[in-house]
Write a structure and sequence with these properties.
alpha/beta; nine-stranded mixed β-sheet; two-stranded parallel ribbon; 18 helices
Length: about 450
């Protein structure tokens, strides 16, 4: 009898435990959904001046203390940066044909070898410079930190050069002050020049001041750090308004999910808030929706386009996430077994070749429709057309706002036959919907 009773209570307890765990999981999922919704509402409120009390996006806070969301990237206190010094480049200011092809810049200056934001999808980690120096830099990392780690595996790792300011000063000493006039220099291309360590030590400000004083470049700031929207930096950019255009890269409003792949950046709402501060100070800005992840396409994409203010930015760059060596790391940021994660995996593991092609075509269509005829001329859609399939090629007919990124053939046409066919016989795109009203 005792054995039967014990079995009964064990069964009952296990059943209650299972139900409790199920309820707990549902409650946690609900909290997560509420958190995402609240983050979106907060973003909309901030950008429309209803953040509670003083207008946190208007003029007043620009001359007071910066909001915490702008002043400090998320996770900054939880992860200590591992600084490793590596040999200097022979030349800091270099031509950047890749960004020139995108229409972004003619030259680039990176203030560090590897920034400290630790984005898992960063293409720099597998780029030529870090790939070529993989083992030498790992050896230096081990010697300076006691641990042999690599950029793609260690989000706390930051690789810095010996003395960026001294080297830049030497480079500019041999150049006329008009050096770079009529050209655009991006700060930065492979790393983020507004990494907290560089900003905190004053390196970022001094390097930008040297560029303003010693060159004629127009400087395109590209960052994921919302510090550019704080009082100090708004004043800096406003003092040189004719020399700067500022953009904050953002590809999703999903704050919780993005925190798993952009591990040390400012949150998407904070970046949008910073962009709004810059726009209210009449500082030139641009939209950088790069990359837009598949989960963003739809209602969230429309919200994101509205929030960067296409009526105020100079241009809107956008691109899909492309098949890189790090796609598995991005997939792993989704909850295990989730529909989004499985859908993402199918796009890049080769099991559904049409999935990525459809996503790319749909992303372009929605951007084109949302910008409408008033703002479509600002679009710079970076189309890596090699994987576009014939059934989706017609979506790009007319190539309005599209910059092809694939290597062309000898005649200058795309190597993708279905895209090349459109190049030979382009047809106009139907009139877009009227653009929405922005507030």
């Amino acid at each position: 009898m005792a054995s039967a009773v014990e079995k009964f209570w064990v069964t009952l307890t296990n059943d209650r435990l299972s139900r409790s765990l199920l309820v707990f999981a549902k409650v946690m999922n609900l909290f997560n959904q509420v958190g995402v919704a609240f983050a979106r509402l907060r973003t909309h409120a901030l950008l429309r001046g209803y953040g509670g009390g003083a207008d946190r996006c208007g003029t007043t806070p620009l001359f007071g203390n910066a909001p915490r969301s702008l002043a400090r990237p998320r996770h900054a206190r939880r992860m200590k940066t591992k600084l490793v010094t590596v040999p200097n480049l022979k030349q800091l200011i270099q031509p950047c044909p890749g960004f020139a092809k995108k229409g972004l810049a003619d030259y680039k200056l990176d203030a560090a070898a590897l920034c400290e934001f630790g984005c898992v999808y960063c293409s720099s980690n597998s780029g030529y410079y870090l790939r070529r120096n993989r083992e030498p830099f790992a050896k230096l990392t081990e010697a300076q930190t006691g641990e042999r780690t690599y950029p793609a595996d260690d989000p706390a790792l930051m690789l810095v050069w010996t003395d960026v300011e001294k080297q830049l000063e030497a480079e500019l000493a041999s150049k006329p002050k008009a050096y770079g006039a009529g050209k655009t220099l991006v700060f930065s291309m492979l790393t983020d020049g507004f990494s907290p360590t560089l900003v905190g030590k004053g390196v970022t400000e001094r390097v930008l001041a040297m560029l303003v004083e010693g060159t004629g470049f127009r400087i395109r700031v590209l960052t994921k750090n919302a510090v550019v929207g704080t009082a100090k930096w708004v004043r800096f950019f406003r003092a040189h308004r004719d020399r700067f255009v500022v953009g904050l890269s953002i590809g999703s409003l999903g704050n919780a999910w993005m925190a798993g792949i952009e591990r040390r950046t400012s949150s998407p709402p904070a970046r949008l808030e910073a962009l709004r501060n810059l726009q209210r100070a009449s500082i030139p800005t641009y939209g950088m929706l790069c990359p837009v992840f598949p989960a963003t396409v739809g209602v969230e994409l429309a919200e994101l386009v509205d929030l960067i203010r296409p009526d105020l930015v100079e241009h809107v760059w956008a691109e899909p996430y492309n098949d890189r060596v790090n796609w598995q790391r991005v997939r792993d940021a989704f909850p295990q077994g989730s529909h989004e994660g499985e859908r993402f995996e199918a796009m890049f593991d080769g099991s559904e070749p049409a999935a990525w092609s459809f996503y790319c075509a749909e992303l372009y269509r929605q951007l084109r429709d949302r910008l409408g005829k008033n703002w479509i001329h600002k679009l710079r859609f970076l189309l890596y057309e090699d994987r576009v399939l014939p059934q989706h090629a017609a979506s790009f007919n007319g190539f309005e706002g599209i910059i092809l990124q694939g290597k062309p053939d000898d005649a200058g046409a795309s190597k993708n036959p279905c895209i090349a066919a459109l190049q030979r016989r382009p047809e106009p795109v139907e009139d877009e919907a009227e653009p929405p009203t922005y507030h």
